[in-house]
Design a protein that fits this description.
- With 224 residues, this protein is of the alpha+beta class.
- It has one domain.
- It is built from three helices and ten strands, in the order ααββββββββββα.
- Strands 2-5-4-3 form a four-stranded mixed sheet, with helices on one face.
- A hairpin with a 4-residue loop joins β7 and β8.
- Pfam families: Pol_BBD.
- InterPro entries: PolX-like_BBD.
- This is Retrovirus-related Pol polyprotein from transposon TNT 1-94-like beta-barrel domain-containing protein.
Length: 224
């Protein structure tokens, strides 16, 4: 089956390489007035979001990754990384009436993406799939999220069914699962991981001081 990139190339046969590159650069940097609420179920090893406005916490980065699933001719720009909170419906069994919030960590901001990617393997939940619905549960078997078919894939059902901008075309085939290398992950998340490491060291030192203090108190008790 033909890919989205091949379809786009056929629609724009007169587009020059220079114009195409300029258009892609604008797509990466120009904010979209309407958010994309298409959170598609993906595999790979990361979550990603198209819009800056989707993030609850955010840290800008300037990183290119080699695996560009949206435009294989170029490297893929990651503009930032952060936390995304999604109001989702827990289960299809109650018609989606039960709602709660899931928090996604280390979500990549990819302005070039045609949608958002939710990777259930990174959320720590089990998953069951049928032709009509995909459902995720926590380790206790309680429902956490569900998704339904959309544009050749499977889309997370958000509370209130918000309407925004959608670039996905029904009947098209898309490659949406994104993987980054360990080196790319270190470069993107390095500062945050380093901060966590430093904090852990400080906590460890503090606990060590408390233990030593307790030991000194205990030693005094012995000599008394």
């Amino acid at each position: 089956m033909r890919t989205h990139d091949e379809f786009t190339q056929d629609l724009e046969p007169l587009e020059t390489d220079a114009f195409a590159n300029d258009r892609r650069k604008k797509a990466r940097t120009t904010p979209t007035p309407r958010l994309c609420y298409d959170w598609m179920i993906v595999s790979g090893n990361c979550h990603y979001a198209r819009d800056r406005g989707a993030f609850r916490t955010y840290r800008p980065v300037a990183q290119l990754i080699k695996n560009n699933i949206f435009n294989p001719q170029q490297e893929l720009a990651v503009a930032g990384v952060g936390t995304v909170e999604l109001q989702v419906c827990r289960t299809s069994k109650d018609g989606g009436r039960s709602v709660h919030t899931i928090v996604l960590e280390d979500v990549l901001h990819i302005p070039e993406a045609v949608c958002n990617g939710f990777n259930p393997l990174l959320y720590g939940s089990s998953m069951s799939c049928t032709m009509e619905v995909w459902e995720g549960a926590d380790r206790y078997g309680e429902p956490v999220w569900f998704a339904v078919p959309f544009a050749g894939g499977t889309r997370l059902v958000l509370a209130g069914e918000p309407r925004g901008e959608s670039e996905l075309i029904q009947g098209m085939y898309y490659t949406l699962s994104l993987s980054i290398t360990p080196q790319e992950r270190r470069e993107i998340l390095g500062r945050r991981l380093n901060d966590i490491f430093v904090m852990c060291l400080k906590n460890s030192d503090s606990e060590g001081e408390l233990v030593n203090s307790d030991r000194r108190e205990s030693d005094r008790d012995v000599f008394i």
